[in-house]
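Protein in question filed below.

…
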Amino acid sequence: MPATKTRKTTKVKTAKVAKPAAEKKTKQPKSKKAEGKMSALDAAAKVLAESREALTTKEMVEAMAAKGYWKSPGGKTPERTLYSAILRELNLKGNESRFAKTERGKFTARK
């Protein structure tokens, strides 16, 4: 049986040509705060500061929507997302966090 020959293919690299400065367009980042929108964490901190009692994240999401601070963009479980974000802030910032956990599933604003 004759041996088969294999061909090696090589890729040819082409030099990239830079676009002239007039053709380059820089993207401007869209800032939510510039549009006047509040993040879920900011809205939760505001709702808790206005509340005199500890709230669950479900109660916070309902209050934020009722007061017009923040509305879920269509997620199925915004209260779970908020809960996770609050816990993340508590772990990262510790005593500098805007939130304090009072009991299982309930938070208040740190004073």
Summary: The longest helix spans residues 78-93. The chain has three helices and three strands.
